[in-house]
Write a structure and sequence with these properties.
The protein is α+β, with helices and mostly antiparallel strands. The chain has 4 domains: 67 residues, no CATH class; 143 residues, Cathepsin D, subunit A, domain 1 (Beta Barrel); 45 residues, no CATH class; 200 residues, no CATH class. Helix content is 27%, strand content 21%. The longest helix has 17 residues. 17% of the residues are buried. About 5% of the residues have low confidence.
């Protein structure tokens, strides 16, 4: 107050103006009782304020109250954190103590804007073997539990797109409520907007520590509480059955007694048949049928062949056209346009940074357009079912100057992908060993190769809107993205190999007059995918 240069009366006026309600009443009372001595009144007021608010206990209590009322910020408060410089994403993470490194899918690296220059070459070992892989790496990423109680820095994260992404493995409250011993386990509801993008290995051991556990009777699932949340381990029973996660086609062999088996039959087994001939008992006792080793198709494979037999046809201009073999019944596909557009923008950024990759992509797409394998997509009818395919490039290790553009039919949206609703079809390939042995049989060799075999078979017009994709106008990555659709069966669709093999054989079916029996047999017996190998005596 001395710095303001005011007298005692003016100081009293200021205190009256700025004190709180309770202190104000006491100040007025003290001022009235010391009306003739303002200096003494000021001294009494300051002494009372010090006793009331200056004690250590009072200061500590006021400080704690202030902290309790301080606004809390969690990872869910996106609006409050909008101005923060850090980037964040809500995701599902897998914990795998059998992995020695922490891995993440490309989407996480793209969201965090990790440049492709921060990459390394590493060896990936899986059940399928060892392979050399290139991917980005990132350091300094922070992971936090959903409740915000645990937060730690991740070790160096390596880009890998072979992380499992089966959303049906995510535990939900609806699952555990059927088990009495799990009812006190707190699980958050399933979040459709959060993707499985991260796999944490044993290089971050503290997140694998088990803080609590709930076990039950034999053959029931159990739960573990970890620092990042709770996990449920075990099979979930519905009506004492375990519904399969994935529907699989099983090729069965029909034995001579009519019973099917999934096991391979022995090539040296003895098949005995009895044919009774009048007046010639014993004639042709050991008879073998041409169907002895014939593989029986599954129900879905029979459905695939039935669709192809009825809808695969030759057009007036000489092109073969076939449908997409949809499962029946099947769920309706959701509209994944926004997801595909986001992937297209990510690819565009990558192409603009890498000139060689950009040239390879535009060359491939130019050939696609020139051959009328793709067309500008027409407008959709309201509520018309469709699907958009994201694109990515694949390089052959020995052909680094060429790229094969793959249509990602396995990309999921709301837990479903195009491949989930298509029938893969039977394995119609010839035995590779048989093809090679017949190739070495005669002195004159003949080889053939079908370039872009899948693209030789067009897709029915009614199914082309399931093959929509985004690409740049006039094939220029600097131009805007517009919608196209494929007119042919694409590399990336699960049924494409079976469709192409079926179509190739259909081309020579009943065509002996045009191409001859030799060509027909060559296609039927000596082709393996798109490569033909044959040998002849002359």
């Amino acid at each position: 107050m001395g710095e303001l240069g005011i007298n005692s009366s003016e100081e009293l006026d200021l205190l009256v103006k700025y004190l709180g309600p309770q202190s104000y009443e006491h100040e007025v009372s003290i001022r009235a009782s010391n009306a003739g001595d303002h200096s003494k009144g000021i001294e009494r007021i300051w002494r009372r304020l010090d006793e009331r608010y200056g004690r250590p206990e009072a200061i500590e209590a006021a400080f704690k109250k202030k902290l309790e009322s301080f606004p809390k910020l969690a990872h869910k408060d996106k609006e409050k954190l909008a101005d923060a410089p850090q980037k964040y994403i809500k995701l599902y993470a897998l914990l795998d103590d059998q992995s020695n490194r922490t891995l993440a899918r490309s989407e996480l690296f793209d969201i965090m804007q990790i440049p492709e220059s921060d990459s390394l070459q590493y060896t990936l070992s899986t059940c399928a073997g060892r392979s050399s892989v290139s991917g980005r790496k990132a350091s300094g990423l922070i992971i936090e539990s959903l409740d915000g109680k645990f937060r730690t820095e991740l070790p160096t994260v390596i880009e890998c797109n072979q992380i499992p992404t089966d959303r049906q493995e995510i535990p939900t409250p609806d699952v555990i409520r059927h088990y009495k011993h799990l009812r006190d386990v707190k699980l958050p509801p399933h979040d459709d907007d959060a993707d499985i993008l991260l796999l944490i290995g044993r290089d971050l051991p503290e997140v694998h520590h088990i803080l609590d556990q709930r076990t039950g009777p034999r053959a029931t699932p159990f739960a573990q509480k970890l620092r990042l949340g709770c996990v449920v381990i075990g099979n979930v029973c519905l009506g004492k059955t375990h519904p399969p996660r994935v529907l699989a086609n099983v090729n069965k062999t029909i034995l001579e007694n009519g019973r099917p088996t999934i096991f391979d039959t022995c090539e040296h087994r003895l098949a005995v048949g009895v044919k009774r001939v009048k007046n010639d008992i014993g004639h042709d006792v050991f008879v073998r049928s041409v169907d002895d080793e014939k593989i029986g198709y599954s129900i879905e494979n029979k459905m695939f062949l039935d669709i192809m037999d009825h809808e695969f046809s030759k057009t007036s201009d000489g092109n073969w056209i076939g449908p997409l073999p949809f499962r029946s019944p099947r769920p309706r596909l959701p509209n994944n346009r926004n997801d595909a557009l986001k992937r297209a923008h990510t690819l565009q950024k990558s192409l603009l940074k890498d000139r060689d990759k950009r040239n390879h992509f535009t060359t491939f797409m130019k050939r696609l357009m020139d051959n009328r394998h793709a067309e500008i997509a027409p407008p959709l009818i309201r509520d018309e079912e469709c699907w958009y395919l994201p694109l990515f490039g694949v390089y052959h290790p020995q052909k680094r100057d060429q790229v094969r553009v793959v249509f990602d039919s396995s990309a999921k949206h709301q837990g479903i992908s195009l491949n989930n609703v298509l029938i893969t079809g039977p394995d119609l390939l010839n035995s590779l060993i048989g093809v090679l042995l017949r190739f070495r049989k005669e002195p004159v060799a003949v080889i053939a190769d079908i370039q872009q075999m899948f693209y030789e078979f067009r897709v029915s017009k009614k199914h082309r809107n399931y093959l929509r994709f985004f690409w740049h106008k006039d094939n220029d990555p600097s131009n805007e993205l517009i919608e196209y659709r494929m007119c042919v069966h694409v590399f990336g669709n699960a049924p494409s190999p079976a469709v192409a093999t079926y179509g190739l054989r259909r081309c020579v079916e009943n065509q002996e007059n045009d191409c001859g029996a030799v060509v027909r047999d060559f296609v039927r017996r000596n082709f393996y995918v798109d490569d033909g190998l044959g040998s002849f005596s002359t």
